[in-house]
What we know:
Elements: H1 4-42, H2 45-59, H3 63-71, H4 83-109, H5 112-120, H6 125-155, H7 167-178, H8 181-217
Helix pairs in contact: 1-2, 1-4, 1-6, 1-7, 2-4, 3-4, 4-6, 5-6, 6-8, 7-8
Amino acid sequence: xxxxxxxxxMLLRGFGMTVLCWVLGTVFGMALGLLIALVQRxxxxxxxxxxxxxxxxxxxxxxxxxxxxxxxxxPMIGIRLDALPAGILGLTIxxxxxxxxxxxxxxxxxxxxxxxxxxxxxxxxxVIVRRVLLPVGxxxxxxxxxxxxxILTKETVILSxxxxxxxxxxxxxxxxxxxxxxxxxxxxxxxxWGLVEVISRVGRRLEARITRHLVERT
Length: 218
């Protein structure tokens, strides 16, 4: 407890940076993943094959390696990013293939009869996506989306390697200055446990609301 006055504000700033990186990385990664899933569904083979290669390469390599290539290798090809933008972009790239696969599976779970019925009454494809594919697919995709969003929270600790001042970076600083490794890592664990608990509760509430909304519509 004697460390709280000195290091409490620093840990809170680090936690705020962790939440910022996680929120932006998750939102952008989910948006990119949705775009990839839609292109794979409606695009031709010319687009599908490169996207599939992208998915396999990103899923088949560690996030740490991807982050190193982006931050330290980027300047060699003219991409110069500060630590924070590089970290957010790294999370976006890392998460997008997983989100794409979640959306792809959710789209395939939509009953074909609903899509055929929408086409039979003259709905355009973009309307079908907005009114049928996304609402129905989101119900089955939501638990997996929330689960991977939780996984991304823990991947944010890797951003400390490129000096993003998030929570892991601040707890390491606290450890090296005080040699109190137990307290620093306990604080790290408690902050992440609280964040994961909030995400889980929000995910369950969203799932309940979406399911109830669809039941009312039908």
